[in-house]
Structures are given as C-alpha cells and as structure tokens.
Amino acid sequence: MHSRRTFLVGAGSVGAAAALAACSGGGAGSSGPDTDADPKDQTIGVAMPTQTYERWVQDGKNIKKSLEKEGYKVTLQYADDDIPTQSQQIDQMVTKGVAALVIASIDGSALTSQLDAAKSAGIPVISYDRLLTNSENVDFYVTFDNYKVGVTQANSLLFGLGLVDKDFKKAKDAPKGPLNVELFAGSLDDNNAHLFWKGAMDTLKPYLDDGTLEVPSKQTDIEQCAIQRWEQETAQKRMENLLTTHYKGDKQVDGVLAPADPLSRGIINALENDGRGKTIKDGLPIITGQDAEIASVKLIADNVQYSTIFKDTRKLADQAVVAAKAYLEGKEPEANDTKTYDNGSKVVPSYLLPVEMVLEDNYEKVLVDTGYYTDEQVEKGQA
User: Fold this and answer.
1) How many CB atoms lie within 10 A of CB 26?
2) Contacts of residue 109, Cβ cutoff 8 Å, sequence gap at least 6
3) How far does the chain reach from its first CA to its final CA, in angstroms?
4) Which residue among 96, 178, 195, 210 sits deepest, i.e. has the most Cβ atoms within 10 Å of its Cβ?
5) Which residues form the signal peptide (predicted)?
C-alpha cells in the first residue's frame, strides 16, 4: 500500500495601423512597427487551439481582456483542435493586417507557411505556451518552465507514495517497494509534452533503476504512453487496457503519472469502474495532473485526485501582452531564458513563469485565496 502524504507547498521555480499588412507589425527582419500608431487603431490576432480544454478558454479570455485593457482591438479564434482550421484562421489574420500575432498552436510544426507570411508582412509572432517549431520566424516565446512541470509532477507522485519528504529528499520511513506505477504522456505533436516527460522521467529514473518503482506494463517510452490530443477518453481506454492486461486479481496500482487533468479524470474513471476505490483513502492510487482545472480541483478537495500543477494563466496572458506591446513600440521584450528553447531553426528568446504543486492541503491557499477560483466553484466543480 502507498503511504499518502500531504503538505502545504508552493513548488515554484521561480485591425491594423495601416491598410497594408506590411505596415502593421515589426517581426524579425521587417521594416519595423509603426511606433506612433494608437493602440486603438491596431488589432492583435490571438489563435488558440481548442475550447474543449478548460485552460485554453481561460487563456483566450485573459489575453483578450489584457490586450483590450491596453487599448488594442483583438480578434480571438479557436480552432477546435483542427490543424487546417488554425492554419486558415492565421492566414486570415495575416491577410487582414493584424499588428501582431499570439499563437498557441495545435501542432507547433504545422504553421511554417503562416509564419513565413507573417514575417513578410512585418508582423511579430509570439509563441504562446506551446513552442512553434521548425521556423526562424518566431520572435518570442512566453511559457511556463515546462521541464519543471514534469519534475514537480514526479515529485508529487513520489511524495504521495511516501518515498520523499516535503523537501523532496528520500524519506526516512520510505517504503522499500516495489511500488507499481503506470506512466502517461501528452500529445506527441505538442512540444511541451516532451518537456513534461523529460522532467518527470529524469526525476523518477533513480527509483525505477533501483526497483523501488516498477512499471508492470513495461511501457516506459513516451511513444507508448502518449495520448493524442490530450483526450480524456483515450486516456481512460488506455488505463482500462492496462488494468485488464497487467492488474488481474488483487494486484495493486500504487501510482499513475498523468501529465494533465483531463487525462487524470479519464484514468480515475477507469480505476473506479474497475472497483479500485472511490477515494485515495479507500484504495485509489496516487494520480498526478496539470492545469488546475476546476473539476480536478474538486477531486483533489474530495481526496480522489492527488495533485495537479497550477500554471497561473493570468500571468502568462499578461506576459504575452507585455511582449506584444514591446514589439509594437519598437522595443525588444525582456527574456529570462535565451538558451533552452531551440525550435529546430533557432533558439527562441523566452520568458518562463513559475509553477506550483497543488494538493488537498494547499489548494485553498494557491487557488482560492489568490482569486483564481471561489470556494463555491470548487464545491460545485464548475467555474
């Protein structure tokens, strides 16, 4: 049996100005932005991947609100996780002469021609949370420390299993194991999924190597564990197959590394349907997550999901606005990482924001006290 641990933690790392698109922006290699343009005469194009994932709805709202507060007009488009739709939406934004682009891609490698067009039109491009890859025409990247997200997820799993203490050092009373865990990864076409995975696996590797943790399915490569488009139903089906094949009888699942809350909820559904308990206290394994979606925060409050990772998208949206505004004023936005994010064509200057581990013991401090959710929303599981 795993030994469930909790503590209060903040595991952070630290329309166009002119009729022609060519006059509206200031991307790398362009003739520069119209720094005298009034913000109310400039439109910023914001491309988001989907509305089916709660966090992207919040991101879109936050960016739009922040840009409009600065006086800019905003065209906000969601692509319903369809790559051709997002390509077309960005094409239209470029054609209409937006002053800047903020893009959260579905597939970071699928927008090369759109980025080429943006550069030709002098439009600065800000890659938002998901890195745009295989193109030199990405001016800036705003994101969270995604390697740290994976590290923090793995640490929450280890802490919940009783293997580490609150400082993430080996616990004095750590179980000897072996403890049975299964691993899930995100969508392979999302660059962040690889960073989450690397951070998590680097952290778990010593415990896997010494046999403290075992993966009964033997599925330990990202390709085996990936969930296309981060779909909850796909994660549930994979967990059901793992239970049927590798956990017959009373063989216990002690923990599951899940990189995002929708996957976590699918995994929980599979475990509950298999009679593995309704809460952690009565047998559910330690299950991680990410994005602090309200449905999962309620599960954490109810002792069902063990953890999630909070990435304050209000701050990320504000940073995207800071970057866009800098370009439109003829300046360079501040980067705090100029080495990590090589997109295959260039190292993209980046601004990384911290992340926080959320557990049953601290969700109120991290999420409610900061105004991200209300107590009523957590109780209902609806924002």
Assistant:
1) 23
2) 133, 134, 189, 344
3) 34
4) 195
5) 1-21
- The four Cα atoms 126, 127, 132, 135 give a dihedral, to 10 degrees, of 20
CB burial readout 160-192, b (16+ within 10 A) else e: bbbbbbeebeebeebeebbbbbbbbbbbebbbb
**What's the pLDDT score for residue 33?**
59
Q: What domains are there in the chain, each with its CATH number?
A: 21-143+313-353 (3.40.50.2300), 146-311+359-368+371-380 (3.40.50.2300)
Tell me the one-letter amino acid at 116.
D
For the record, the structure tokens of 104 come out as: 């959260």
- Do 11 and 355 touch, CB atoms closer than 8 A? yes
User: Contact at 8 Å (CB) between 351 and 333?
Assistant: yes
* Residue 220 burial by Cβ neighbours in a 10 Å radius (0-12, 13-18, 19+): middle
Spell out the alpha helix ranges (H) of the chain: 54-69, 83-95, 112-120, 146-160, 191-209, 222-225, 232-246, 261-273, 294-301, 313-328, 363, 375-380
Nearest alpha-carbon partner for 316 in 149, 200, 115 = 149
Q: At a CB cut-off of 8 Å and minimum separation 6, what does 294 contact?
A: 54, 373, 377, 378, 381, 382, 383
In this structure, what token pair is assigned to residue 107?
């597939």
357, 361, 339: which is closest to 348 by C-alpha? 339
Cα–Cα distance for residue pair 371/35, rounded to 1 Å: 35
Distance (Å, rounded) from C-alpha 149 to C-alpha 213?
20
Compute the distance between CA of residue 123 and CA of residue 121 in angstroms, rounded to an integer.
Answer: 6
Tens digits of per-residue pLDDT, 8-62? 433 333 333 322 233 333 333 344 556 667 888 899 999 999 999 889 999 999 9
Which residues of the chain, if any, have pLDDT below 70? 1-36
